Fold this sequence. Notes:
7 helices; six-stranded antiparallel β-sheet; nine-stranded mixed β-sheet; D-amino Acid Aminotransferase, Chain A, domain 1; D-amino Acid Aminotransferase, Chain A, domain 2
Amino acid sequence: MKNYYILDGKLLKERDITLAGLKRGFLYGDGVFETLHAENYHVFRWDDHWERLMKGLEVCGLEIKENSGRLKDRIETALKRYRLADAYVRVSVFRRATDSFDPGTERRTNVLVAMKKHHPYPEKFYRRGIRCAVSEKYCRNEKSPLVYIKSLNYLENLLARLDAGRNGCEESILLNTRGFLASASVSNLFFVKGKTIFTPSIDCGILSGITRKAVLEICKKQDIKVREGMFPPEKLRSADEVFLTNTLMGVMPVREVKGLFKARKFLFAGMLRKELKKLTG
């Protein structure tokens, strides 16, 4: 799979990218990122991603010289140049390298954009749903500011996903430190009871997902009742549906949460996926 890059505004080949501008991200995870999806050479919900990126930079004490509109134009121009109509795009922002662990007053950054052809999740996942397990090892610390941004250190999320695989599942569902449902390792969590959709509130220690926001907007437009709050995992036992959302998977139905839930239908997940596709198309 061929990758294409923009580093600090310049198109570069992978072999020409060095550690010089990325060192602190590599050594300490000192930076933030956003994962985006482009269809028909257009980045979906760019403004929402940019807003979240700005919040992450503020938490980390970082600044960016890039202008939102200029960077978006640069990305979409590159996508057309490389004929990446349906693309995975990742924007990573690294604190500039300093000589010590303590960055002092250094707030300047380097910006790396990586682009490649988007390979969607297997269609069978959407037909049959995926399997999840509630993680017994990892949780979301709702008291930490880092759970609310996309920092470059995603190790805990990665380990939770690997743990899911060892349990014969595709995803891990994480609780927060108080034992309430939070999110999956790389996605937001929803469940359905009757005609109401439930989802953990932001203060449960979840990332404010861009697709989560889009789904909530669709529900409002469709007059679907939504409740955001703090829910114990036992609530999944009586759920009619469970589904996950993120930028690349869209709306993903869950067929099983081990020991808690088995799907009987995917009505809401299917409908919301179709409505989301209308927005991205």
